[in-house]
Design a protein that fits this description.
five-stranded parallel β-sheet, 9 helices, about 10% strand, globular
Length: about 230
Amino acid sequence: MPVPVVILASGGLDSTVTAALAKAEGSDLYLLTIDYGQRHLFEIDCAKKVAAWLEAKDHKILQLDLGLFGGSALTDQIPVPTDRPLHEREHGIPVTYVPARNTIFLSLALAYAEVLNATKIFFGANIRDYSGYPDCRPEFIQAFMEVAKQGTRLGQEGHPIEVVAPLLFMTKREIIQKGQELHVPFQFTSSCYQPGPDHRPCGHCDSCLIRQEGFQDAQISDPAIMRSHS
């Protein structure tokens, strides 16, 4: 019988490919999307479309206003950096880092997993294409799994919950190619940190640049760009 797994689903490219990999394993997918007050709220609509495509068993959208704290260009009145060259993106922690976001998200996914008796949480973290996000590193994931083992019923009963990050060391080109193999509907995904009123990608934020470079390297046209101009 298929086993339940929890997917942290943002509506972005990486989490969607991650979810497709979980589906390919034959698991029952339970998606969790966090509406955390991000300026790129359009990704929530994308997550709904992705959940339908995946035929998820359930898709929960949880509201949590991290804008109350601020401290990030994604949740506060801080300009999103644009047109940063590669060497700048590869150093330091950018202002688009949301303090403790993945710790919070994984904790919520952990609670959902316990209710479902699911022993896997799929998480689209990637260290190759994002500069300096401390909560996308393998050390962080290992440390969180130890917290999960020590702090949950499942962990104490000998069924520790694993955080699965299949894209962790892949390049964006490799992620896109894997998504193509799995027939991922890239047109349903959004990566832009500050899409326009028509949800058109800005084409200038770090996330847009990384996505553009990935599709160029993979020699594939990005259908989300074509969608936004249709």
